[in-house]
Amino acid sequence: MSNRVVITGIGPVTPIGVGREDFENNVFTGKHGNFKRYQLRDGNSTELGFIDADRQIKSLRKEVLEIKKHASNERKMPKILADDQRIYKLALLSSILAKKDAGLLELTDDVGNDTNLFFAGVTPPEDTAAGHQKYYANDETVKRSAETEIHGQRATAISRLLNIRGIVRESAMACSSTLDTIITGFKEIKHGESKLAFCGGVDSLIGEMVVEVFRLMRTLAQHAPDKTITNLCRPFCTDKTGTVLSEGGGMMVLEELERAKDRGAETRILAEVLAGSQT
């Protein structure tokens, strides 16, 4: 069996833009986004990108309530939204945006046994000695950390929020993790193992240690001493100076072509996935 696989929805959550239309428009018009200046140890400065996750979730109150109504772990929803670890908020936000973009937000019966979730995420621990002492100061924070840092636990929690009852896998392949989830979802649908897959990941690992590692590797974009460049994040710019770190996330809805047609989603098809490989 070899099914055709299409993309029917995406949910980008970035400092440049949140949601497909906002993100696309800002990328191609060169909007700088929500970045803050960050002082480096060597005296120079860079920029870090942040997401106002709480404000974005509040702006999607109707959609959040719809998700909560059908979630298989509804009681955990308030805890996840209040959790110190931002990975859940970013994942929930990108998932809602992807479902909405694919026209699946209210089709709860369509998201269930034949739907898979392939997820990649990095939990942002405090990366200073003082931060560790603060974070692990009591039994409750240790318990919460253990619950969320076990491999696969985050993907499981997200699958319950989305009412996904198919295969759930969490990828941990560093920078290629999210790409791995997309290729895995593509192969599952192509070979008839599922009809629908949510594939994506989030990252919020922008603490001091990570920033300094990128600085030492000399890949980090920095402000010029003469201050001629004020905005470091400039997508597709020919004179960009390096990497700008940011938190963010994105979820993609992959769907078997005939299934998308059957639910009248032909106009929502953004692209067709033709091939992918993993090593």
Describe this structure in a few short sentences.
Helices cover 38% and strands 19% of the residues. By secondary structure, the protein is of the alpha/beta class.
Descriptive account of the structure:
The chain is of the alpha/beta class and 279 residues long. The protein is built from eleven helices and nine strands. It has a six-stranded mixed sheet, with helices on both faces. A three-stranded mixed sheet has the order 2-3-7, with no helix packed on it. The chain is globular, with a radius of gyration of 19 Å. The chain starts with a strand and ends in a 6-residue tail after the last strand. Residues 125-139 and 141-148 have low confidence and may be disordered.
Alpha-beta classification = alpha/beta
Which geometry do the CA atoms define?
A: globular
Work out the strand percent.
15-25%
Helix amount, in percent?
25-40%
Please summarize the sheet with the most strands: 6 strands, mixed
Mean pLDDT level: 80
**Sheet with the most strands: spatial strand order:** 5-4-6-8-1-9
Radius of gyration from the alpha-carbon trace, in angstroms: 19 Å
**Strand count:** 9
Poorly predicted tracts of residues: 125-139, 141-148
List the helices and strands and how they pair.
Elements: E1 5-13, H1 20-29, E2 35-39, E3 45-49, H2 53-59, H3 61-70, H4 77-82, H5 87-102, E4 115-122, H6 129-135, H7 139-149, H8 153-161, E5 168-171, H9 177-190, E6 196-203, H10 208-216, E7 245-246, E8 248-256, H11 257-262, E9 271-273
Parallel strand pairs: 3-7, 4-5, 4-6
Antiparallel strand pairs: 1-8, 1-9, 2-3, 6-8
